C-alpha cells in the first residue's frame, strides 16, 4: 500500500496552516514559538516527501536537509525560550501584546 505524494503535501499544508494560525492569532509567546515549530515541521515533511518520491531516493539529500533543519530549529527554540524567559523576568508577562516597546 503506497501513499501518493499528494497526501503528504496536503498534510504538510494543513500543518503549516495550523502553525501559521497559531503564530499569528495567539497572544502568548510560548504558543507563538509552538506555531513556528509546526511550520518548520511542515517544511520537514515536504523535504522528506519530495526526497522519497524524487528520482534519486538513494542520495539521502532530503534526510540531510531535514537533519540540518531540526538542528537549526532546536537552536531557534533555545534562543527563543531564553528570550521569553528574559522578557518574563523583566516585564512579568509573556503576552506578546504587552511587549509594545523594547526600551528597558
Describe the structure.
With 104 residues, this protein is mostly helical. It has a single domain (5-91), classed as Helix Hairpins (Orthogonal Bundle). Helices cover 73% and strands 0% of the residues. The protein is built from three helices and no strands. The chain has helices at residues 5-25, 29-52, 61-91. The longest helix is centred in the last third of the chain and has 31 residues, at 61-91. It is elongated. The chain starts with a helix and ends in a 13-residue tail after the last helix.
Brief rundown of the structure:
With 104 residues, this protein is mainly alpha-helical. 73% of the residues lie in helices and 0% in strands.
Helical residue percent band: over 70%
What is the gyration radius calculated from CA atoms? 17 Å
Q: Please state the structural category.
A: mainly alpha
Distance between the amino and carboxyl termini:
59 Å
> How much strand content do the residues show?
under 5%
Task: Note the main sheet.
Answer: none
Q: Compute the number of strand runs.
A: 0
Q: Domain count, please report it.
A: 1
**CATH fold group:** Helix Hairpins
Q: In the CATH hierarchy, what is the class?
A: Mainly Alpha
CATH architecture: Orthogonal Bundle
The geometry reads as elongated
Unreliably modeled segments? none
Number of helices: 3
- The sequence of SSEs as H and E is HHH
Topology of this structure?
Blueprint (H helix, E strand, L loop, with lengths): L4 H21 L3 H24 L8 H31 L13
Helix pairs in contact: 1-2, 2-3
List key phrases describing it.
single chain, 104 residues, mainly alpha, Helix Hairpins, 3 helices, 73% helix, elongated
Amino acid at each position: 500500500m503506497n501513499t501518493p505524494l499528494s497526501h503528504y503535501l496536503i498534510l504538510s499544508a494543513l500543518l503549516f496552516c495550523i502553525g501559521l494560525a497559531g503564530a499569528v492569532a495567539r497572544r502568548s509567546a510560548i504558543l507563538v514559538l509552538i506555531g513556528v515549530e509546526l511550520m518548520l515541521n511542515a517544511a520537514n515533511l515536504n523535504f522528506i516527501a519530495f526526497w522519497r518520491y524524487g528520482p534519486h531516493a538513494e542520495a539521502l539529500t532530503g534526510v540531510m536537509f531535514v537533519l540540518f533543519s531540526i538542528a537549526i530549529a532546536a537552536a531557534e527554540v533555545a534562543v527563543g525560550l531564553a528570550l521569553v524567559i528574559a522578557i518574563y523576568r523583566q516585564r512579568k508577562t509573556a503576552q506578546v501584546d504587552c511587549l509594545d516597546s523594547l526600551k528597558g
